[in-house]
Amino acid sequence: MDGEADGTVGMSEDCGPGRRRRVHGMLKLYYGLNEEGKAAEEPESLDPCDINGPHFDPELYLNKLRRECSLAELMDQETCMVKQIRSLDSDMQTLVYENYNKFISATDTIRKMKNDFKKMEDEMDCLSANMAAITEFSASISGTLQDQHTQITKLSGVHTLLRKLQFLFELPARLNKCLELQAYAQAVSSHRRARCVLQQYSHLPSFKGIQDDCHAIMDKLAQELRQKFRDGGSSAKDLSECVELLLQLDEPAEELCDKFLSHARSRLESDLQGLEAEIRPYPSASAVKDASARRLSSTTGAGSLTNNSPKTNTLPSPTSNTDILEFIDRGCNEFVSSLCLVITSYQELFINHAQTGELASKNIPQMANAKLHVFVDDLAARYFSLVERRIQEEKGVGDNSLLVRALDRFHRRLQAVAKLLPGSTVPNKGTEIVIRAATERVKQYLSALQSFYMDSLTDVRQALATPRLSVAGASVAGGGSLLGGPASGRDAPTSLPELLSSLSASILNQIKSVLASVHLFTAKDITFSNKPYFKGEFCSQGVRESLVVSFIKFVCQSSRQFCESAGDKGGSTPPALLLLLSRLCLDYETSTISYILTLTDEQFLVQHHSPVTPVTTLCAEAREAAQKLLNHYVKVQGLIISQMLRKSVETRDWVNTIEPRNVRAVMKRVVEDTTSIDVQVGLLYEEGVRKAHSSDSSKRTFSVYSSSRQQARYAASYTPSAPMDTNLLSNIHKLFSERIDIFSSVEFNKVSVMTGIIKISLKTFLECVRLRTFGRYGLQQIQVDCHYLQMYLWRFVSDENLVHFLLDEIVGSSAHRCLDPAPMEQSVIEVICERG
């Protein structure tokens, strides 16, 4: 009880929904109800002092309180009970006020229900009376007609039979009337209704006559339907109705399919003939030669490295009446559209049309579908052949947009055939044509790039061969102060670096132009560009490998061809061109190849699903070509100088020559050419690393005549009494000298190149000297020449000791081959060389 008092006091202090929930909870607790509104099943309390129990006794409760509680506790207990009573009264009033509207609404609802039920009772009484009357009338009618029911049924059957007989006898007239009105569907329907009956009673003369008349009329009707079907001028709906009626008249479905396709073939073949008329035959061989000659004559002398327009050696395509886009448009608008209409009509007539009755069991759709596939494949193959022939005429590599748009339209229209005829091979074959056309276009661009590259090399050769553009003259001008030549070569309009820069830039611009043209195949608005069967393979294998990589390999391979030994190409190739190409290939290896392939990959979003050529492989190939070209350049320049030295040695009588008074002109020419080559190589290659030079390099003397003591020993050593001692000293000297590899590969710098050329030249000079016999003055002339060469050549090589060693060998060999070895004084040699 105390707990309840506390709860009610707390509850009275609250307000809102929370207070109401607590009030309802207290009431449920007071009335002994659970959450479902049912009385909780709790054991009844038998204590008479339990104020909440059913056996509560007030007298006993009060007596107990008076015995056990003091006066103050009794007063508190009274106050608590008064508060609980007031709280419960307040809660009861609140519940009544809250549910007052519900009580009023319930009262109104009960009153209305009383009125409605009273009206319903009246209507139910009326309905019951009506049902009783109807039952009574029905029983009366059944009783009256019971005797005549059998007779009425018999008369109804006779009436139905008479109507059928009347229909049969009027059938020929009805069919003729339908034939006159061209109501073919009604005629066929009427005949189908009577056909079984006439067939069943055909043994009766009257029915036999009706059957014969009907057959004659239906034969005439079938003939008109066949004629209408062959004309094909009707609408699709009329044609569909015509085919359906012929099938209902037992016309062979296969024959109808063949007739329909035959008629359609004639119309489609006329479209193909119109397309074929627009394709001109290829020019004859003589016409091709004339066109090529005209092209060559029109372009001779007009080419320049600054002109980046595409240069192609492709033959001009035969001029057609229409361009490729108009041709494809006509093919799509006429042939492909007509083919789609034929497919749609055919499918509506023979495949998609619902078959009923006997027609459903003949598998007409399967047979018709097979014939349609054969028909479409046959005509599409002819159309594709014409399209490929027309695409092959597009030989020019100028504007690529028309071809791309034409292929896009061609591919897009074929997708309609794929939707109309699932399982057809036509779209796949059309896609193959698009891929082949794109691939062939890439091949044409590759051929154009190759032709442009070769034409550019021709322009370079012409520039090098022009007298004003002589690289030797420009080179001498650049370093002529060494020999007292002109101070500068600014009069020359073009130098090797300019030629190289122009050649490299023109090739790179041409590649970019070609990539831009090919990129049209992968534009976003082109339907086939995003297809996986096209884009991945085309970008990776078509553009990257077949175009860019193939062209880079072509540049390297064609450059290596210039390194052939003296023959058709190697013997006529200017050395400056070899040097320029070697630098071009080296630049490709260092930067250009990576730039081109990166540009291609970024522009075409190349995904390397299939194996592609790595950049390192191409760079290695370019470096190999550059190395081979530079080696060949060294060899060619070395042989040119060697040829001068060899002729100068072989054409002179060294035994009877006069006492030397000056340096031979050929030696001056050798120094001039070497200086020219040095300047030429320096235009394209860096200086390189040299060993430290001694301060008296230009004044150095050779071991054979370096001092008076050596001269005396030298003179004594070459007496006839001691020939073996001389050879022994020479051989011992060679043992302690480094081995010189004459034809070793050179490095990509000027010093290494010049060292290679000078090694070849001096080695040739040495070998020629070993084959000659010298007199005293001949030996002295060799001494003068070698000292002159030593004065200038040491500055071109990486190690001056190499020049000194070879010149020592030359003088030593001359001494060995001399009949009277009396060397010239060093001071005299220096005077002659300084004067010369």
Automatic annotation (TrEMBL):
Q: Please name the Pfam families in this protein's record.
A: Sec5 (PF15469)
> For this UniProt entry, what is the primary localization, expressed as one broad class?
Golgi
Ranges of Polar residues composition bias in the record:
295-318
Instruction: Please state where this protein is localized.
Output: Golgi apparatus, trans-Golgi network; Recycling endosome
**Residues covered by the Exocyst complex component EXOC2/Sec5 N-terminal domain:** 51-664
**One GO BP annotation here?**
lysosomal transport
Residue ranges of region Disordered?
Answer: 286-318
Keywords assigned by UniProt, alphabetized: Coiled coil, Endosome, Golgi apparatus, Lipid transport, Protein transport, Transport
Oligomeric form and interacting partners: Component of the Golgi-associated retrograde protein (GARP) complex. Component of the endosome-associated retrograde protein (EARP) complex.
UniProt similarity note: Belongs to the VPS51 family.
What is the recorded function of this protein according to its Swiss-Prot or TrEMBL entry? Involved in retrograde transport from early and late endosomes to the late Golgi. The GARP complex is required for the maintenance of protein retrieval from endosomes to the TGN, acid hydrolase sorting, lysosome function, endosomal cholesterol traffic and autophagy. Acts as component of the EARP complex that is involved in endocytic recycling.
Supply the name of the protein: Vacuolar protein sorting-associated protein 51 homolog
